[in-house]
UniProtKB/TrEMBL annotation:
Signal peptide: none annotated. Belongs to the fatty acid desaturase type 2 family. Residues 6-225 form the Fatty acid desaturase domain. This is Stearoyl-CoA desaturase (Delta-9 desaturase). Its main location: membrane. Keywords: Fatty acid biosynthesis, Fatty acid metabolism, Iron, Lipid biosynthesis, Lipid metabolism, Membrane, Oxidoreductase, Transmembrane, Transmembrane helix. Pfam families: FA_desaturase. It is found in: Membrane. It comes from Pedobacter soli. GO terms for molecular function: oxidoreductase activity, acting on paired donors, with oxidation of a pair of donors resulting in the reduction of molecular oxygen to two molecules of water. The chain crosses the membrane at residues 40-59, 127-144, 150-172.
Length: 243
C-alpha cells in the first residue's frame, strides 16, 4: 500500500511549499530570506510540485490581484462567477498563464518585492519538464500499484498543485464559517485545519492578509505558521512580526 503513503507525502509536501513560499512569502512578504535560501526553496517547490510546478512570481501577482479585487469581475479566481469547479479551474489556469506570459498588464504596485528566478523558471516551467515528471509518476505507479483502483489517483498526482489551489479557492469562498463579516465570500473551511497547513482559515486571512498566522480562535491551528516560526528561530527566514 505504498501508493496511498506516496499520495499523503506528496499532498503535504506540495501544499506546504505552495503555502510557505508562493503564498506567504511571494504574495504577502510575511518574512524575508536570503537569495540563497530563496533559490533553495524554488528548488523545493519544483521537487514537490513536479508536473504542476508554478512560478512564484506569477502566483504572487495573481494572488495579490485576488485580494485587491475579491469577488469582482477583476478577481482572477473567484468562484462567485462560476457554477462548477472545472470552470473555475480553467479560469484560474488562463489567468495564471496570461500573467506568467506577460499578456496581462499588471500595475507596478502589485509587483513589488516578488521573488524571481527567470533561468530556473525557464527550465522548470515548460512542457518537457512536465512530461518528464509525468513519466516519473507513471513509473512509480507502475512499480507500486497493487490494486487497479490506485491508478485513479494518477491524475491527482499529475495536477496536485493546481487542485490544491482550487480546493482552497472554491471551498473557502462557498462553505464554512466566518469569524469576520467582510465584503466578500471568504470563509474558514475547517475549525481544526490538519489538511491545508492553515490555509483553510481563509476568512481570517482576508481580514488580516499581512498576518503570517492565519489562526485566530483558540481552537484554530495553523500548522504552517508553526513551521515558519521554527524556521525563524533557526534563522532560515526572518518573520516581520511574531503573532
Amino acid at each position: 500500500m505504498l501508493i496511498p503513503i506516496f499520495l499523503i507525502i506528496h499532498w503535504y509536501a506540495s501544499l506546504f511549499f505552495q503555502s510557505f513560499f508562493h503564498h506567504r512569502y511571494a504574495a504577502h512578504n510575511h518574512f524575508t530570506m536570503s537569495k540563497a535560501w530563496e533559490k533553495f526553496f524554488y528548488i523545493c517547490c519544483f521537487l514537490t510540485q513536479g508536473s504542476s510546478y508554478i512560478s512564484a512570481r506569477a502566483y504572487g501577482l495573481m494572488h495579490r490581484l485576488h485580494h485587491a479585487h475579491t469577488d469582482t469581475v477583476n478577481d482572477p479566481h473567484s468562484p462567485s462567477f462560476f457554477q462548477s469547479i472545472p470552470a473555475l479551474l480553467w479560469k484560474t489556469r488562463n489567468s495564471y498563464n496570461d500573467i506568467f506570459k506577460g499578456y496581462t498588464i499588471v500595475e507596478e504596485k502589485y509587483s513589488k518585492d516578488l521573488p524571481e528566478w527567470q533561468s530556473f523558471d525557464k527550465f522548470a516551467h515548460n512542457w518537457l519538464a512536465r512530461v518528464l515528471w509525468g513519466a516519473l509518476y507513471t513509473a512509480i505507479y507502475a512499480v507500486f500499484v497493487t490494486h487497479w483502483w490506485m491508478w485513479l489517483f494518477l491524475p491527482l498526482t499529475f495536477s496536485m498543485g493546481a487542485l490544491q489551489g482550487i480546493a482552497v479557492n472554491w471551498w473557502a469562498h462557498r462553505f464554512g464559517y466566518r469569524n469576520y463579516a467582510l465584503g466578500n465570500t471568504s470563509r474558514n473551511i475547517l475549525p481544526l485545519d490538519l489538511l491545508f497547513w492553515g490555509e483553510a482559515y481563509h476568512n481570517n486571512h482576508h481580514k488580516n492578509p499581512g498576518r503570517a498566522n492565519n489562526a485566530v480562535k483558540w481552537f484554530e491551528l495553523d500548522t504552517g505558521y508553526a513551521v515558519i516560526k521554527l524556521m525563524h528561530r533557526l534563522k532560515i527566514i526572518k518573520l516581520k512580526a511574531m503573532r
